[in-house]
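Researcher: Before we compare anything, I want clean individual predictions. No alignment, no superposition, just each chain on its own. First chain goes here; please echo the sequence and then give the structure tokens.
Model: Echoing the first chain and its structure:
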Amino acid sequence: MKVVVVTQYHFSLWNAPQSFLDRLRREFPDIEFIYRPNFDNIENYIADADIIVGASLRPEQFRAAKKLRWISSTAAAVHQLFFRELVNSDVVLTNASEVHGHCVAQHVMALIFAAARRIDVDVRFQQRRYWGQEDLWRQRPRPREVDGATLGLVGVGAIGRNVARMASAIGMRVVVIREHPYRGVDWLPADSPERSRHVVYGIDQLDRMLQQADFVVLAAPTTDRTKALMNAERFSQMKPDAWLINVGRGALVEEAALVQALRKKTLGGAALDVFDTEPLPADSPLWSFENVIITPHVAGMTDKIWDRQFEFFSENLHRFLDGKPLLGVVDKAKGY
């Protein structure tokens, strides 16, 4: 059996380190592992590959992989792989949502606390060496407490489940939008007394959630149904002091509508880790708002990332060899 690992990113952390390959070779001594740091002549390496580990592949490259049975994406997002040839094939596609979910959820909680306590304002004061105690209190929205606040959550996948669990633990009320609302509050144990204060809605009740939420967290995949999910009409449903937090996909937000809501001050603020265009252009108006926190797509950044990648992929590879169901299988019909 042959496994080709191919990662080529400008950001070094996303590229597989030698230690990842070394651990795989020790764990699976009978499997041939090939690492490619780029896609130069990749067709020659994947022609007889059974498995490809990586986050991207072009249609012509996919066609060259005649023996391919499984693509294990090292990223949570897999929309870049949804070309016709792959979607219509028998090749299994898995994503790494479970790898990134816990870390991204921690980033969400950090942004919630930063927004609630207006740490963004404090940082600007620090840069000016200014003791802005009175000025901070005059800001809108003012510093507030997080426990007792309502978290509106779109998406209850690997990220959303962790966000919901963490938010529940600190006393937030969680109102969830999920495709299958009958699944209920499944991020808490069935016998947990906390379950009764949380609410689960279907996508058709998004406006109802937005009207209640103090913090709206987007953790959904990009599909035809979720593109520009947050538009001018949806922003008009939010509380004037509520914050939007997006760690899902840039395409979930209509950025022009978000800019307008921020300019009109009909929205408390926004904390954004993902954008339509990345890197975020220097001339984007989002940089200039005092109530916007921008992080450069780093919610999944952790020094443990390749340890987690190894644990997840090795578990799946054992399952693959044993003929058992894989973890993180993407429904190619749904797009996630």
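Researcher: Okay. Second chain, same rules.
Model: Second chain and its structure:
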Amino acid sequence: MELTGAVGIIAGILTSISLLPQLVKIIRQKKAEELSIGMFITLLAGLALWVFYGVLRNDMPLIVTNGFSVLLNIWILFLTFRYQDRK
């Protein structure tokens, strides 16, 4: 694997797992009132476009890493709405 590909894959993995601590915190505390829903919706739209771009370019690392991020964002948004009224 060439350096460019390796850097891209590592960057994608790190970006994708960056949301895991937030997701774990929401699951443990069963509350998500401090989160900006607008930010997560905007991020979700951008990530979905990255996945689409990856499909257009037939770039599997781009599709997989951003697809994983899309799933994490959907999960975070789901839990945010689920725990919205709990205090």
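Researcher: What stands out in the second chain?
Model: Residues 60-82 form the longest helix (23 residues). Additionally, Residues 35-87 form a domain with the Monooxygenase fold (CATH 1.20.1280.290).
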